[in-house]
């Protein structure tokens, strides 16, 4: 249970206090009415004694009573009606709400942090009112009148006679059988005579004399002179006196609360506003002349003109009529006790003290003694006889029967003088004066008697008070008997069917259990009494049970939340909308964000409805919004109901402020980061053979690798335009901005070119959404040339579309759980700064077959092709979070995000706009095939363009023709029978010169330092005027590798008029070409032995070319020199393998480089070919060319890269390298080419062996130094035979003369040695036996050349 202002030790004694009746004469009532108070109300703030009181118990022991309080009330002869009590309780609860700005307790339980109201003042008010308004019953005497104050005024003609009348009146009410109400404690009721004296108007002498007469007649302890009204009411405003009555009157008066002010209740006005206060004390505020006050109806009696059902628990309780504003105004204007001074306050306080000390307590003490004596005497006589009879017939002990076995005798009534009731009376009297020990023993005795008699109502009452007495006993001699309470509750509820008494038991027992920390038992007790008969009681008890769960040592958070939900539901049924809303909101803290989506939906839906009922429309919209924005697991029908409810509430809110700003709508979801912005026109579709450049569109997926390639291409062309340097302020052109692009700068858009914003919507619901009149929301700041800025906020497009034209999508349907993008366009007509804020639309549902539930669904209205059940206008903002900053230390240690400006374009002045079309562009080619296509350039803007260039990573793929190229055919049709090559016919005399081409590498940008990839497009006059178009031929050559190739073209162009913000524009095109295998060309070069070239340098080569036709399918053709030089340029770009030499001597490095040069050759072979292909029963002649680049002597080269076989996997070896220096020794192949050798000799030699046995043949050995360094050469003529077979094959001959020569050859020197070979037989001989060793002059190592091994030098010796 929640914390209370009073402890249970204070609560119980205050709930059960001695009751005193008040019977006033009309004149006395008039005196008190001058203060707007009845006599009973006058005494109420002073009814608690300020000092301890003493009395003696029957054993003559002194007993101390602390904080004794008495309850004085006017006599009411009609019992209150249950319906009126329920109404009073309902009003008390609705009137007590949490204080504004109250700081709630924060309870941390596990991972929950809950803001919970620690106190529940509405429950305490309810409990206090409930206990005070309990009607007196016959089975207990706690709220029976013990005494009666008879009040008369000193201003009356015969006050003593008036006292006699009042005394007779009291006697008649108590003892006449016509009056069953009120109840009196004992027949001999204490009468206390009070003489009221108005100090300001009355005669004090007379009052004193009357009082003396009273003392003589009634005794000094039975009467009192009370002086009041020491000042007149017209002086009341002069001095501010405290008003101690207001707090009591507010609690006890029925005042309709603010929750009823919203027009649901019928308001009736009374002439006298005071009559709207129904006091618990039962005195009507208006004194009715001629009607004895003792016959007045009970103030809790319902007005017959009110609700006939007398039920307050139903939802219609608010219809019970009572004035709202008049009552409030009247109450605020009334000053209670206006004629009383502080001295009068003290006099009233003293009067209560005197009455209690001298009148009430002695009376109670005397009554207790009398009852005790009666009980003792009866116990000695009848009880002893009775018990003996019982023992005789039934044994010594009566077995206790369980409550369920006892028959229903709740209707049993004892006569007033029954001894059982006397025990109960004594117990109640002891309890009222806080003598709990004696009270407990009496209750215990009475309980046994009642159970023996099976008088269950009496037994339950005795059990209840016995338990409370046991708990309140000083020193706690025995534990609290909770089972007594349980039995009492069960009896009241199940047997006696008296829920009021059962509720009192539960309220008291729960407080006791709470004080002992037994929250679990208290919660179970509170929950037990929840039932269908009273929603208000059930709601309050469930709420207290929830507080029990949260206040346990280990808080049970989910049980707390569940019972708060149940309490909220019952509050709602009881018409307590504010309390219901509060309970649901408290429980929401537990369920929120824990994945209990269905529970969250239920709570939010209820909060929404309750808030709507209370006209808290913003809260209602917020709650319904939560239902829609969470990932709902509800069925489609339920989601549809939620949505319609939201739309209905939202429509009501918007109608309150139709001119207010458009609120944010929760549906559909917008993925702001996925928003894409595209600047420019949509791409034109292909038209026959005419294909538009692909450029950029929103249909293309982002590819980081491709994006980087385009950036590099643009940087290349910008560098060429700016003489090799990229400007510092250069930024790559971005036509499409997305979450991957660099959005840190304001993008640039061109006036009159559309801006397309792609917004990614997602419908999380299972019902379709219909958005109508969907458009972008923007703010535009025009910039004019005078420099003045004027900001113009445009939220709708209907007023001034001349600044920014806005496209409106009339209908946009998003099906259930669908993600869908909407492309919305803006058309800027003015330069300036544009800020795209969000989207604006009407949100509605499509009316389908589902029944429209919820509150107030509108009839369907037809829009377009869908039926729209209801729609509301709203907006959603596009808020894009920029990238996380992670550069500086500060940014790394904190979370900071950069700007994302993709929605804030700057509109610049007009720029040219190029469109490119490709005509007859092939999709398939053979490798190396040459094909002709046409490119059309169109300027679709109002500005001329210039500086048109195209750049590609594959310049070898296409060409517009070189500067020296011949004229090409003008149209595609005229080129059908034209070859890509020109055949040159030459005569035999000019073979050498005819084979030299007129084209050179300079024509194609090779070797002059520029970028060969950047190709200027040869426009006529270099300018393309607005609306003009130019068609140029383009030659294409199929890439050497088969497969699918993506080739990127980037067209660059500028405006004739230089713009400060946009210096150039680009257009992209990606061509996809599929190439098929055609020819495989392999070539090898080696040195020729011939030395007869023009320069005598030994530069002749032998070239071996193998051509293999590998074609299997049909495919493509272009000019020879262009493609050769373009492919050459791409080869030159490839990184060459560099030999890194790390030696100590620079000379060694130089020597090796010299040796390497001897091995290199610069030879390029172009192979032209024609292919005869039959396609679609037509014979086609396809042309093409292949290039083979030879760089190394003796090494085979190919026309296309060879696929390398992956090396076999080897085991990993660990070793320590002994020598880390890199060897600078050249390879054997390189060294063997230092010296070129050539033998000159006759092919056949005739010799007469019969004349001369020795045949001598002159042989010349030519030695050529191929390097540019001095070379030492050793020629060794001695035979080096590896095997006997070699002698047999080549035969044996001998060199005559010197067997070894040592020579030094200068750079590229040729030296000849004259040798003689001696033969003794005829035959075929190999003269290639001389071994030549060479070394660089400054090196030590000698290497043998391998030139003689390349080809045998055969000579035939014949005999003549």
TrEMBL record:
Residues 1111-1188 form the TPPC8 third Ig-like domain. Residues 699-926 form the TPPC8 first Ig-like domain. Residues 1234-1336 form the TPPC8 C-terminal Ig-like domain. Transmembrane segments: none annotated. Residues 927-1067 form the TPPC8 second Ig-like domain. It holds the Pfam family Ig_TPPC8_3rd. Residues 289-320 are annotated as: Disordered. This is Trafficking protein particle complex subunit 8. The lineage of its organism: Eukaryota, Metazoa, Chordata, Craniata, Vertebrata.
């Amino acid at each position: 249970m929640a914390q209370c202002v009073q402890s249970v030790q204070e609560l119980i004694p205050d709930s059960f206090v001695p009751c005193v009746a008040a019977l006033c004469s009309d004149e006395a009532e008039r005196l008190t009415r001058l203060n707007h108070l009845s006599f009973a109300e006058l005494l109420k703030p002073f009814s608690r004694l300020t000092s301890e009181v003493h009395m003696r118990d029957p054993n003559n022991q002194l007993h101390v009573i602390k904080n004794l309080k008495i309850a004085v009330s006017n006599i009411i002869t009609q019992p209150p009606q249950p319906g009126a009590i329920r109404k009073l309780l309902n009003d008390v609860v609705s009137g007590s709400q949490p204080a504004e700005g109250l700081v709630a307790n924060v309870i941390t339980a596990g991972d929950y942090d809950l803001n919970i109201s620690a106190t529940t003042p509405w429950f305490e008010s309810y409990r206090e009112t409930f206990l005070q308004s309990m009607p007196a019953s016959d089975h207990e005497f706690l709220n029976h009148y013990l005494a009666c104050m008879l009040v008369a005024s000193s201003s009356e003609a015969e006050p003593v006679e008036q006292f006699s009348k009042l005394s007779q009146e009291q006697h008649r009410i108590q003892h006449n059988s016509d009056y069953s109400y009120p109840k009196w404690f004992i027949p001999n009721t204490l009468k206390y005579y009070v003489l009221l004296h108005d100090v300001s108007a009355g005669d004090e002498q007379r009052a004193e004399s009357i009082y003396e007469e009273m003392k003589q007649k009634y005794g000094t302890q039975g009467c009192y002179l009370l002086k009041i009204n020491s000042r007149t009411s017209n002086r009341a405003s002069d001095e501010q006196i405290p008003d101690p009555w207001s707090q009591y009157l507010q609690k006890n008066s029925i005042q309709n609360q603010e929750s009823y002010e919203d027009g649901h209740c019928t308001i009736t006005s009374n002439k006298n506003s005071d009559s709207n206060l129904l006091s618990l004390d039962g005195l009507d505020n208006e004194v009715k002349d001629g009607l004895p006050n003792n016959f007045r109806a009970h103030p809790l009696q319902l007005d017959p003109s009110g609700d006939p059902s007398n039920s307050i628990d139903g939802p219609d309780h608010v219809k019970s009529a009572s004035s709202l504003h008049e009552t409030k105004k009247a109450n605020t204007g009334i000053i209670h006790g206006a004629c009383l001074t502080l001295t009068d306050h003290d006099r009233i306080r003293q009067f209560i003290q005197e009455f209690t000390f001298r009148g009430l307590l002695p009376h109670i003490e005397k009554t207790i003694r009398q009852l005790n004596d009666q009980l003792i005497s009866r116990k000695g006589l009848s009880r002893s006889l009775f018990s003996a009879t019982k023992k005789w017939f039934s044994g010594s002990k009566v077995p206790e029967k369980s409550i369920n076995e006892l028959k229903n005798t709740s209707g049993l009534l004892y006569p007033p003088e029954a001894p059982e009731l006397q025990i109960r009376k004594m117990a109640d009297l002891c309890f009222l004066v806080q003598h709990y020990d004696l009270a407990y023993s009496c209750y215990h005795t009475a309980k046994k008697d009642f159970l023996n008699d099976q008088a269950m109502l009496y037994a339950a009452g005795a059990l209840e008070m016995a338990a409370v007495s046991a708990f309140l006993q000083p020193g706690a001699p025995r534990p609290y008997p909770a089972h007594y309470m349980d039995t009492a509750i069960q009896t009241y509820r199940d047997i006696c069917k008296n829920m009021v008494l059962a509720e009192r038991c539960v309220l008291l027992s729960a407080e006791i259990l709470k004080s002992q920390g037994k929250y679990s038992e208290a919660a179970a007790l509170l929950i037990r009494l929840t039932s269908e008969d009273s929603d208000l009681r059930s709601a309050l008890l469930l709420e207290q049970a929830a507080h029990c769960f949260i206040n346990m040592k280990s808080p049970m958070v989910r049980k707390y939340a569940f019972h708060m939900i149940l309490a909220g539901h019952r509050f709602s049924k009881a018409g307590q909308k504010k309390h219901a809303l509060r309970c649901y909101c408290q429980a929401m803290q537990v369920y929120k964000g824990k994945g209990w989506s269905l529970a969250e939906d239920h709570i939010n839906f209820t909060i929404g409805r309750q808030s709507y009922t209370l006209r808290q429309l913003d809260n209602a919209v917020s709650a319904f919004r939560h239902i829609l924005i969470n990932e709902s697991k509800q069925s489609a029908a339920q989601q549809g109901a939620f949505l319609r409810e939201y739309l209905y509430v939202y429509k009501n809110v918007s109608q309150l402020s139709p001119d207010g700003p458009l609120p944010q709508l929760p549906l559909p979801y917008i993925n702001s980061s996925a928003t894409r912005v595209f600047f420019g026109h949509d791409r034109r579709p292909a038209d026959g053979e005419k294909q538009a450049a692909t450029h950029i569109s929103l249909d293309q997926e982002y590819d980081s690798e491709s994006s980087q390639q385009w950036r590099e291409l643009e940087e290349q062309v910008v560098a060429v335009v700016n003489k090799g340097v990229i400007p510092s302020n250069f930024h790559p052109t971005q036509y499409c901005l997305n979450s991957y692009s660099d959005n840190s700068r304001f993008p640039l858009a061109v006036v009159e070119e559309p801006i397309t914003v792609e917004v990614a919507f997602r419908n999380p619901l299972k019902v379709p959404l219909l958005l109508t009149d969907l458009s972008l929301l923007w703010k535009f700041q025009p910039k004019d040339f005078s420099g003045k800025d004027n900001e113009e906020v445009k939220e709708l497009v209907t007023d001034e579309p001349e600044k920014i034209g806005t496209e409106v999508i009339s209908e946009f349907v998003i099906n259930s759980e669908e993600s869908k993008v909407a492309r919305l366009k803006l058309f800027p007509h003015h330069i300036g700064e544009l800020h795209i804020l969000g989207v604006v639309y009407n949100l509605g549902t499509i009316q389908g077959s589902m029944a429209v539930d919820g509150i107030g669904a509108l009839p369907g209205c037809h829009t377009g092709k869908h039926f729209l059940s209801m729609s509301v206008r709203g907006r959603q903002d596009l808020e894009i979070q920029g990238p996380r900053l992670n550069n500086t230390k500060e940014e790394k240690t904190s979370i900071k995000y950069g700007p994302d400006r993709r929605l804030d374009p700057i509109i610049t002045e007009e720029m040219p706009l190029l469109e490119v079309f490709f005509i007859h562009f092939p999709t398939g080619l053979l490798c190396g095939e040459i094909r002709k296509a046409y490119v059309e350039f169109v300027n679709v803007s109002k500005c001329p363009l210039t500086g048109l260039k195209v750049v590609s990573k594959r310049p070898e793929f296409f060409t517009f023709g070189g500067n020296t190229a011949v004229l090409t055919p003008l149209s595609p049709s005229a080129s059908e029978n034209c070859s890509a090559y020109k055949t040159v016919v030459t005569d035999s005399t000019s073979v050498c010169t005819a084979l030299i081409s007129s084209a050179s590498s300079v024509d194609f940008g090779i070797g002059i330092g520029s970028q060969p990839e950047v190709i200027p497009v040869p426009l006529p006059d270099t300018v393309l005027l607005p609306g003009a178009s130019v068609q140029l031929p383009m030659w294409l050559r199929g890439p050497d590798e088969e497969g699918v190739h993506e080739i990127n073209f980037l067209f660059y162009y500028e405006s004739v008029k230089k713009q400060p913000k946009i210096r150039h524009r680009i257009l992209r095109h990606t061509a996809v070409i599929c190439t098929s295998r055609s020819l495989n060309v392999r070539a090898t070069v080696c040195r020729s032995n011939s030395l007869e070239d023009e320069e005598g340098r030994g530069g002749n080569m032998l070239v071996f070319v193998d051509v293999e036709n590998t074609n299997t399918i049909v495919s493509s053709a272009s000019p020879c020199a262009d493609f050769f030089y373009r492919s050459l340029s791409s080869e030159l770009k490839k990184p060459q393998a560099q030999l890194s030499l790390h030696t100590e001597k620079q000379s060694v490095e130089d020597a090796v480089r010299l040796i390497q040069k001897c091995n290199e050759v610069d030879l390029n072979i172009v192979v032209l070919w024609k292919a005869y292909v039959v396609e679609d029963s037509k014979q086609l002649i396809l042309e093409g060319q292949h290039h083979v680049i030879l760089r190394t002597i003796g090494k085979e080269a190919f026309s296309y890269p060879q696929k390398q076989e992956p090396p076999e996997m080897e085991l990993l070896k660990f070793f320590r390298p002994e020598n880390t220096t890199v060897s600078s020794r050249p390879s054997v192949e390189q060294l063997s080419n230092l010296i070129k050798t050539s033998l000159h000799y006759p092919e056949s030699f005739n010799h007469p062996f019969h004349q001369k046995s020795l045949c001598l043949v002159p042989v010349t050995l030519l030695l050529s130094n191929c390097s540019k360094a001095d070379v030492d050469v050793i020629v060794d003529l001695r035979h080096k035979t590896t095997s006997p077979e070699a002698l047999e094959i080549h035969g044996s001959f001998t060199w005559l003369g010197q067997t070894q020569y040592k020579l030094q050859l200068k750079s590229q020197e040729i030296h000849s040695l004259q040798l003689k070979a001696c033969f003794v037989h005829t035959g075929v001989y190999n003269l290639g036996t001389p071994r030549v060793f060479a070394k660089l002059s400054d090196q030590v190592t000698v290497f043998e050349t391998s030139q003689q091994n390349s080809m045998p030098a055969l000579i035939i010796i014949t005999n003549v």
